[in-house]
């Protein structure tokens, strides 16, 4: 589904990614781990199409089509979803209104009619139940005054509504207490199918106890220094990242 | 020496004709440029006005002559040459040969986006309307319903003829001739406007909209509006139109006076969408408006405005809270883009006891525009337990525009309670990227963010107006982010 080949990227002349190659197939869960500043969030942003970075080399394709020239919204319409590490606030725009706009813009891009209000409501009910979200929450302004946990849960709620092909979860576990972590992870697991794929970016093992990855990659200084199965995550938890820095 | 042409002769003759009072012979629709006592007499005569009104205008003119154009507002422009303006223009007749094909396609595109019907498009762009049956019958039914309740809603000219006692009693009582430069000018030369009177205890059953008066001639550049809500009555008044109003007149100086008697309530909503000038800042309307209302005991006045047009806006809809327990409200959204400049806000003058006022102002600036909020909250020494809450929020797009806040607070009674909140925020790259990532393109994202920002004010507008106003905000900001 997603193929990244030899990706190099920099910002303001500083090299952040120094040759990343990664292949994610439908039905797979990949975890990307690594210390702060390794380039994890940069990688996520570049896949989503953020324009602040200079991609100096490499390719990214989705289902065999090059997506490097597509705008962020076009990538979203093709099924790329990024759960933000720091979701932004949009005062005065309710969670419901935002997700409604989001869904209908994607439908419009695919030449579909707007989703009928009845179907939209039904879907909102289902998905908010799945993530144990209080209905009152849905009429609040997007992320305004939300706790860290509420923000992350709202990201996963949007993911549930949009049903993306490729979901990238950027430190979705940070800010979540144990109960919220369980609910969110549970939601993600229910949304998983053989047709979609998930990339989980995290520092810690604890999220991976709930969302079991097929592959684990360690990112250090802009490069994937080690790849393995879920056991690698446990090893990292035990030894820390330092032992990898000398590889 | 240039040649003395036939046109020059004609002009001279016309001027002489005023001097000698042969007004009725003048068939031309427009008076020659310039302002003098004779021109004012001519306007008054042309409109067949009573002597008291002619004198009132002349008095205003003499006051105006002694005044200077104010320059304290945070706007820069070349001051109009008041002698280059023609002060009387009869409503233009419709050109029967003009079709929609002759109209600026850009304008038609905007109409379409606003969802304006074909008939209305024609009306707004000065094209003859084939099927006017609908609007005529609507207007007639409308007048009948109002008439049954004793409500008067007509043009100012008609009111001067039909209800001179009311006009004479109230005209200039809230905005006196001496009030300011533009108000004095308006008092001298106003051509028409709206008049509305709601009798005691009557609740006006529908929104009164100037829209129903479009056929009765253009509102003109010096509009005069007077709304009187007698004791315990209620009226909601809508001014303006969301369709872009193109006007060749560069200077607009309107005066609006509201009188809310004991226990009465007036809700006055405006959408101002005059031509803002080109993207490069050429042309556009100068809008210098004086709007003020007076509240008697337990009365209420609520101003709601959506300002997206004009090159220069200078406008402070205000409330004089004279009666005890009276309430004043001001809800405003001002959007400036490209090279537009707006200096707008309100004045809440607390004179009575237990008077309350609320100010919610939202400014959105984009492009190279400058957007200022200017407001005064005044608590007089004898106003006990007055309360005010003000909130002024500014939203900036890009790094070339400006947002300014000038709040003046004068409290002379120590039982007053005043609150003022202000925020300035910027539509950030992060917000836009977040929306983009969710499949929402930048233009749509800006509309979403701006509508969210303006929600508190949009909610105050009558329903159908609110929907149109939302679309208008979207259109005004199109192309504001590259």
Q: In terms of topology, how is this protein built?
A:
The complex is a heterodimer of chains A (247) and B (482).
Chain A lengths: L1 E10 L2 E11 L4 E5 L6 H9 L5 E9 L2 E2 L5 H6 L2 E4 L6 E5 H15 L7 H14 L10 E2 L5 H15 L3 E5 L7 H14 L5 E5 L4 H5 L4 E6 L2 E6 L1 H10 L2 H4 L2
Parallel strand pairs in A: 3-10, 3-11, 6-9, 9-10
Antiparallel strand pairs in A: 1-2, 1-4, 4-5, 7-8, 11-12
Helix pairs in contact in A: 3-5, 5-6
Chain B lengths: L5 H15 L16 H10 L4 H15 L39 H10 L3 H7 L8 H16 L3 E4 H7 L1 H7 L10 H9 L4 E5 L9 E2 L14 E6 L4 E7 L10 E2 L2 E6 L4 E8 L13 E10 L4 E8 L4 E4 L2 E4 L5 E10 L4 E10 L5 E10 L4 E10 L7 E10 L5 E10 L5 E10 L2 H9 L4 H12 L1 H4 L4 H14 L6
Parallel strand pairs in B: 2-4, 3-5, 4-7, 5-8, 6-9, 7-9, 8-10, 9-11, 9-12, 10-13, 11-14, 12-14, 13-15, 14-16, 15-17, 16-18, 17-19
Antiparallel strand pairs in B: 1-2
